C-alpha cells in the first residue's frame, strides 16, 4: 500500500494494465470451461441420443434374465402306494468357487456359522474337482432354520456363497430298493453329452440331477418333467429381484411299480446275511413282483455326490453291494436248467417221457467220467424222475444226444443268453454257449465233451437270475413269454391320466402244450416228493419248482466236493426256480443264494415264504436263511 | 427487538454472496435428490449427507468472514505444514490398497493431499502477490518448483488423480498470474514430447486405467466394469431419462460407487440428456459467479485465489463427468456438491467461503 501512495500515477496505470491482462486470461479460461462443457454435452448427446438404443438394449440385457424353473421329479411308489422315491424341499448352502475367492478360507469362516463335517468337506472337494469354476456347489445340505438365520445375518461376508431352496430326492426304503430304483446324481460331462445328443439341453437347463441307475435312469424322461421358464429382473450379483413373467414347470410323471414293498422287505429279511438275488414275476403279464439283489447300498448317499470314503467302502467290500446281482450277476443255472433240457428233448423228439435210462452213478464220455451226485446212481430213471430226483446222468446223456447246436437254439427261445428287455438299466446277456460263441470268445472249436456238462447247467452256462425267472415264468405261462417290467403305471400329473404299462408278449414259444404239461407235472413232483419236498410240506397250495446247485470252483477228476472243507466264497451257489399255484400260476420266481450250498436247503425255503406271503398273505416268523443256524 | 434480530441477521449474512450461495444450494439439493435414489431410499444416508452439508455451510460462513489478507498471511505456513505432512506420509504413512496416502496421527488419520488442494493455490497466489512488482521468468520458475514439490510427493504415493488435479490448480494460478504465452507454448510442446516417457514412468494400474478407457471391453468384469456400467447407465437414460427412482442400472446394483464417485451415472440414467444439460447449467452458474468475483477482486492474491478456486471446482466437475461418461480415465474424484461424502463437501465450501470473502471484502480494501 505504501508503494501505491508514493507513486500513484504509474502504479494505478500498471495495476489497470495488469487487471486487463488478468481479465483477458480469465475470459480465455471461461472459454476453455465452456469448450470443455460443450465437449461433455456432445458426449452426452452421443450416448443418450445416437447410441441410446444400443445402451438401452445393454441395460435391458443386464436387467432381465431368463431363468429355468426346475420341475419337481416324479414320485415312485410300490403297487400299493408305499413311497420309494420322493422329493423334499430343503435349504442348502452353496459355494460358487469362481466367485468366492479363496474357497478354503471361505469354508473355514463358514464353519463358524454352520456345522461342516469332514464328510461334507470331502464330498464338496470331490464335487469341486468334477465341476466348473462358476458352478454352484453344495457344501452343506439340509440346513436348520437356525443355521439359515445365522448365515443370513453374515451373508455380506460371503460373496459367492448362497442359500438355495432345493428339491431333494430321498429314498425312504434305503438299501431295500437300491437295485430297483437306483438313484439320481449330479449331472456330469458324460450326462451332458448324452443330453445334448438327445436334443434335451433346453429341458435340462437348471437341472442339476439326472437318473444314474435303475428306474431313475431308465425312466429319466418321464420322471424329469418339463422345465418352466421365468423372466426375472436381476441385480449385478445375479440375484433375482422380481419376476416379470413365467411359464410354470410341469412335474415329472409318477411311477407306480408292480413290486410289493412288503414282499420285497420280507425277502430281503429272509436272505439274512447271505448274498444273492431273487426275481419274482407274474407269469401272465411279466410284471415284476419282487426284485432283490443282496446286499444293496443306501442310494441316499449318492444324491449329492457320494463322499470318497463311503464310495471306497462300497467298492472294496468283498460282498460287492454295488453289483446288481439280479440282472448283472451271472451264475451257472445248475440243475434248474434240467426242466428246460427235458423240454428240449421232448420238442426235438430225442426222448419220450417214458423212456428210461439206467443210471450207474456216472456217464462215461471217452476216458472222462462225468459223476452223478448219487454215488451209486438213481437206478432206472425216466423223464419225471430225472427232474424230481435231479439225476445228472440222465442229462449228461441227453446233452450228448442233443448236441450243442440244438441246445443253444432251444435255450435261446427262453431268453437265455439275451437281455430280457426289463425296464431297468445295466442288464447283461449272460452266456449261452454255442459253437459260434466259443469261436468268438476263445478262437477255439467246440469239443463234444463240453456239451455233456451243459446238460446239467454247468460248463460255460452263465445266466442272470432275471433270465431264469423269466424262463420259468414262460413255462408257467405255457410258453407265452412276456417282457418283464417293474413299472406298472405312469401317472401324468399334467392331465391326470394314468397310463398302465401294457403287458408286452415277447413271443409265443413253438412248444407242444402236452410237452409243457409233462415238464410242469415233473416240477410239481419236485416240491411234492422230490428234492424240495420237505420245504413245501404242508403248503396250502400246489407249487412247482426245481432246485439247483451251481459250482463255484471246478472239482478235479476223481475228487469229491465236501462243503465243510471248502472256503465260504468257493462254496456252491444254491438256486431254486418255482411257480405257484401249479394249475393257475400267479407268481414265478428264481432265487440264488451265493455260496449257500445245496439249492433245496438255502434257496427253496425263501421261495416257500414268498409264496406263502404272496398267495396266502402269511408272513414268516423268522428268516428262513437262518434256519440251519 | 425486531430491529435487533434484523441487525443480527444482517451481520450473519453480511459476507455471504447471495448468487453464489443460491447456485451452491441448488447443486446440493440436486445432490440430495439423486442420493435418495442412489442409496435406495436410504434416509440415514440422506440425512447424513444433510449433516455434512450443514457442517460444510458453517465452514463456508466461517471462511466468508475471514478477510483475504488474513488468509494471505497464513498461506506460507499452511503450505509448509502441508509439505511437511506429505514428507511424513512418504516416510511413515499408512499403506492402504497399495498406496501410501494416509498419515496416522494417533487420534485420527489424515490425508495431507486433501489439504494441499487448498494450500497450493493459496501459496502460489501469495507468492505472486508478494513479487507482484517485479514478476519475471525467474518467479514463474520458482513458483513452478513450489508447485512441483507437493505434486511430485503426491504422485509418488501413488495418487496420480489428486496429483494431476493439484497440478491443474497450480497451473491455473501460474496462467492467471501472467505466465508468458511463449512459455506456455514451449511447455505444451514439451509435455507432448514427453508423453511416451511418462507412459513408461507410470504404475501398472495407472496404465491400465488409460488402456481401459480406450477399450473397456478388454476386461469387462475387471478394470473395465466401472466404465462399461456407467456408460450403459448414461446411454440408456436417453433424452428424458428413466425417471427418478426408476434407473435399472442404479437400482439393480450395476453401478459401482453409485452414491459417491459415480453418482452422476445415477443422475444421468434417471434424468437423461435434459437433466445433464440442466446440471451443466448449474455448474456454469457457480463457475461464472466465481469468475465474476475473481474479475472484480481487489488484489492479485485475491484474484488468483478466486480464479484458482473456481477453476478447480470446474476441473473436478469436468473430470468426474468425463470419467462417468467414459472419456476420461477412472480417477477417484467425486462430483462436486453432488456426491456423497463430507470431506469433499467441506473443502469445496471452504473454497466458496474464500470466494465470498473475496467478493465482500473488495470495497473494504479499496477504500
Task: Give the gist of this structure.
The complex is a heterodimer of chains A (629) and B (367). Chain A is of the alpha+beta class.
Strand and helix map with partners:
The complex is a heterodimer of chains A (629) and B (367).
Chain A: H1 2-6, H2 8-50, H3 52-63, E1 64-69, E2 76-77, E3 83-95, H4 103-110, H5 118-130, E4 137-140, H6 145-154, E5 161-170, H7 178-181, E6 184-186, H8 189-197, E7 209-211, H9 214-218, H10 220-224, E8 228-234, E9 240-247, E10 254-257, H11 261-270, E11 276-281, E12 288-294, H12 308-316, H13 325-328, H14 338-347, E13 357-359, E14 362-365, E15 368-371, E16 379-381, H15 383-388, H16 392-413, H17 435-442, H18 448-454, H19 465-476, E17 480-482, E18 487-492, E19 497-500, E20 505-508, H20 513-529, E21 544-550, E22 573-580, E23 587-593, H21 599-602, H22 604-616
Parallel strand pairs in A: 2-10
Antiparallel strand pairs in A: 1-8, 2-3, 3-4, 3-5, 6-7, 8-9, 10-18, 11-12, 11-23, 13-16, 14-15, 17-20, 18-19, 21-22, 22-23
Helix pairs in contact in A: 11-22, 14-16, 14-20, 16-18
Chain B: H1 2-13, H2 18-38, H3 43-64, H4 68-92, E1 94-96, E2 99-104, E3 109-110, H5 112-130, H6 137-156, H7 160-176, H8 181-193, H9 195-201, H10 204-214, H11 225-237, H12 248-251, H13 263-295, H14 300-324, H15 342-360, H16 362-366
Helix pairs in contact in B: 2-3, 2-13, 3-15, 4-5, 4-6, 5-6, 5-7, 5-14, 6-7, 7-14, 11-13, 13-14, 14-15
Number of domain units of chain B: 2
Q: Could you give the order of the helices and strands of chain B?
A: HHHHEEEHHHHHHHHHHHH
Averaging pLDDT over every residue of chain B, what do you get? 87
> Nearest-angstrom radius of gyration of chain B?
21 Å
Characterize the biggest β-sheet of chain A: 7 strands, mixed
Q: Total number of helical segments of chain A?
A: 22
Strand runs of chain B, count: 3
Which percent range fits the helix content of chain B?
over 70%
- Residue-averaged pLDDT of chain A: 86
Known CATH architecture of the largest domain in chain A: 3-Layer(aba) Sandwich
Order of strands across the main sheet of chain B: 1-2-3
Strand content of chain A: 15-25%
Number of domains of chain A: 3
CATH class of the largest domain in chain A, named Alpha Beta
SS-based class of chain A? alpha+beta
The share of residues in helices of chain A is 25-40%
- Content of β-strand of chain B: under 5%
Amino acid at each position: 500500500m505504501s508503494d501505491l501512495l508514493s507513486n500513484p500515477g504509474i502504479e494505478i496505470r500498471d495495476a489497470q494494465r495488469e487487471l486487463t491482462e488478468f481479465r483477458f486470461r480469465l475470459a480465455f479460461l471461461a472459454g476453455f470451461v465452456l469448450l470443455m462443457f460443450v465437449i461433455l454435452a456432445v458426449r452426452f448427446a452421443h450416448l443418450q441420443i445416437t447410441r441410446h438404443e444400443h445402451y438401452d438394449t445393454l441395460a435391458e440385457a443386464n436387467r432381465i434374465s431368463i431363468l429355468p424353473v426346475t420341475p419337481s421329479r416324479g414320485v415312485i411308489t410300490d403297487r400299493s402306494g408305499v413311497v420309494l422315491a420322493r422329493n423334499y424341499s430343503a435349504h442348502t448352502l452353496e459355494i460358487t468357487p469362481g466367485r468366492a475367492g479363496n474357497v478354503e478360507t471361505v469354508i473355514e469362516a463358514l464353519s463358524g456359522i454352520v456345522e461342516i463335517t469332514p464328510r461334507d468337506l470331502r464330498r464338496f472337494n470331490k464335487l469341486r474337482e468334477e465341476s466348473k469354476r462358476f458352478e454352484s456347489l453344495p457344501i452343506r445340505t439340509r440346513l436348520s432354520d437356525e443355521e439359515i438365520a445365522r448365515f443370513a445375518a453374515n451373508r455380506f461376508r460371503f460373496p459367492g456363497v448362497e442359500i438355495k431352496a432345493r428339491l431333494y430326492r430321498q429314498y425312504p426304503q434305503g438299501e431295500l430298493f437300491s437295485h430297483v430304483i437306483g438313484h439320481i446324481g449330479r449331472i456330469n460331462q458324460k450326462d451332458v453329452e448324452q443330453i445334448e445328443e438327445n436334443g434335451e439341453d433346453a429341458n435340462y437347463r437348471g437341472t442339476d440331477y439326472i437318473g444314474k441307475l435303475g428306474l431313475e435312469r431308465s425312466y429319466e424322461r418321464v420322471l424329469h418333467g418339463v422345465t418352466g421358464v421365468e423372466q426375472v429382473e436381476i441385480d449385478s450379483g445375479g440375484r433375482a429381484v422380481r419376476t416379470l413373467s413365467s411359464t410354470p414347470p410341469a412335474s415329472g410323471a409318477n411311477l407306480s411299480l408292480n413290486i410289493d414293498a412288503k414282499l420285497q422287505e420280507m425277502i430281503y429279511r429272509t436272505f439274512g446275511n447271505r448274498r444273492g438275488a431273487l426275481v419274482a414275476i407274474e407269469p401272465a403279464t411279466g410284471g415284476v413282483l419282487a426284485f432283490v439283489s443282496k446286499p444293496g447300498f443306501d442310494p441316499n448317499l449318492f444324491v449329492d455326490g457320494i463322499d470318497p470314503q463311503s464310495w471306497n467302502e462300497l467298492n472294496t467290500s468283498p460282498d460287492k453291494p454295488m453289483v446288481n446281482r439280479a440282472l448283472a450277476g451271472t451264475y451257472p443255472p445248475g440243475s434248474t436248467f434240467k426242466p428246460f433240457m427235458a423240454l428240449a428233448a421232448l420238442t426235438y423228439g430225442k426222448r419220450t417221457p417214458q423212456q428210461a435210462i439206467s443210471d450207474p452213478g456216472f456217464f462215461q464220455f471217452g476216458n472222462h467220467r462225468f459223476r452223478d451226485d448219487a454215488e451209486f446212481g438213481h437206478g432206472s430213471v425216466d423223464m419225471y424222475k430225472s427232474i424230481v430226483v435231479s439225476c445228472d446222468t440222465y442229462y449228461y446223456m441227453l446233452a450228448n444226444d442233443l448236441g450243442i447246436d440244438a441246445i443253444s437254439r432251444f435255450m435261446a427261445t427262453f431268453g437265455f443268453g439275451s437281455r430280457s428287455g426289463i425296464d431297468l438299466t445295466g442288464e447283461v446277456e449272460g452266456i449261452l454257449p454255442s459253437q459260434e460263441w466259443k469261436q468268438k470268445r476263445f478262437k477255439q472249436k467246440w469239443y463234444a465233451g463240453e456239451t455233456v456238462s451243459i446238460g446239467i447247467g454247468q460248463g460255460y452256462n452263465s445266466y442272470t437270475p432275471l433270465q431264469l425267472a423269466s424262463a420259468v415264468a414262460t413255462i408257467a405261462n405255457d410258453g407265452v413269454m412276456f417282457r418283464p417290467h417293474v413299472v406298472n403305471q405312469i401317472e401324468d400329473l399334467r392331465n391326470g391320466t394314468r397310463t398302465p404299462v401294457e403287458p408286452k408278449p415277447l413271443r409265443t414259444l413253438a412248444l407242444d402244450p402236452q410237452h409243457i404239461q409233462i415238464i410242469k407235472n415233473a416240477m410239481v413232483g419236485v416240491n411234492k416228493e422230490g428234492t424240495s419236498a420237505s420245504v413245501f410240506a404242508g403248503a396250502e397250495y400246489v407249487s412247482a419248482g426245481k432246485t439247483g446247485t451251481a459250482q463255484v470252483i471246478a472239482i478235479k477228476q476223481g475228487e469229491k466236493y465236501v462243503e465243510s472243507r471248502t472256503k465260504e466264497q468257493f462254496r456252491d451257489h444254491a438256486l431254486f426256480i418255482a411257480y405257484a399255484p401249479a394249475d393257475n400260476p400267479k407268481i414265478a420266481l428264481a432265487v440264488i443264494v451265493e455260496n449257500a450250498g445245496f439249492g433245496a436247503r438255502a434257496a427253496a425255503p425263501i421261495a416257500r415264504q414268498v409264496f406263502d406271503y404272496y398267495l396266502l398273505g402269511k408272513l414268516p416268523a423268522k428268516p428262513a436263511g437262518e434256519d440251519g443256524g | 427487538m425486531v430491529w435487533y434480530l434484523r441487525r443480527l441477521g444482517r451481520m450473519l449474512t453480511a459476507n455471504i454472496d447471495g448468487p453464489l450461495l443460491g447456485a451452491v444450494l441448488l447443486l446440493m439439493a440436486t445432490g440430495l435428490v439423486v442420493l435418495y435414489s442412489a442409496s435406495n431410499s436410504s434416509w440415514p444416508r440422506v440425512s447424513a449427507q444433510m449433516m455434512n452439508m450443514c457442517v460444510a455451510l458453517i465452514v463456508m460462513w466461517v471462511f466468508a468472514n475471514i478477510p483475504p489478507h488474513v488468509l494471505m498471511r497464513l498461506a506460507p505456513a499452511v503450505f509448509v505444514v502441508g509439505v511437511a505432512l506429505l514428507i511424513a506420509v512418504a516416510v511413515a504413512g499408512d499403506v492402504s490398497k497399495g498406496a501410501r496416502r494416509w498419515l496416522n496421527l494417533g487420534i485420527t488419520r489424515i490425508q495431507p493431499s486433501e489439504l494441499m488442494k487448498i494450500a497450493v493455490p493459496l501459496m502460489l497466489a501469495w507468492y505472486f502477490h508478494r513479487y507482484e512488482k517485479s514478476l519475471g521468468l525467474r518467479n514463474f520458475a520458482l513458483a513452478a518448483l513450489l508447485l512441483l514439490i507437493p505434486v511430485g510427493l503426491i504422485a509418488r504415493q501413488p495418487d496420480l488423480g489428486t496429483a494431476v488435479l493439484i497440478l491443474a490448480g497450480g497451473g491455473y494460478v501460474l496462467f492467471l498470474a501472467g505466465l508468458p504465452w511463449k512459455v506456455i507454448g514451449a511447455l505444451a510442446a514439451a509435455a507432448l514430447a514427453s508423453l511416451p516417457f511418462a507412459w513408461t514412468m507410470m504404475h501398472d494400474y495407472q496404465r491400465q486405467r488409460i488402456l481401459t478407457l480406450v477399450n473397456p471391453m478388454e476386461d469387462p468384469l475387471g478394470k473395465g466394469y466401472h466404465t462399461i456400467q456407467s456408460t450403459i447407465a448414461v446411454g440408456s437414460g436417453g433424452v428424458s431419462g428413466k425417471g427418478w427412482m426408476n434407473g435399472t442400472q442404479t437400482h439393480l446394483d450395476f453401478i459401482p460407487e453409485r452414491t459417491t464417485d459415480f453418482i452422476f451415472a445415477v443422475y444421468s440414467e434417471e434424468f437423461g440428456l435434459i437433466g445433464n444439460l440442466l446440471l451443466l447449467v448449474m455448474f456454469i452458474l457457480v463457475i461464472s459467479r466465481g469468475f465474476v468475483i475473481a474479475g472484480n477482486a481487489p488484489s492479485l492474491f485475491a484474484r488468483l485465489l478466486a480464479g484458482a478456486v473456481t477453476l478447480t471446482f470446474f476441473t473436478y466437475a469436468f473430470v468426474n463427468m468425463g470419467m462417468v461418461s467414459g472419456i476420461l480415465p477412472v480417477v477417484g474424484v467425486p462430483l462436486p456438491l453432488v456426491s456423497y461424502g463430507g470431506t469433499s463437501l467441506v473443502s469445496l465450501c471452504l473454497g466458496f467461503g474464500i470466494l465470498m470473502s473475496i467478493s465482500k471484502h473488495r470495497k473494504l480494501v479499496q477504500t
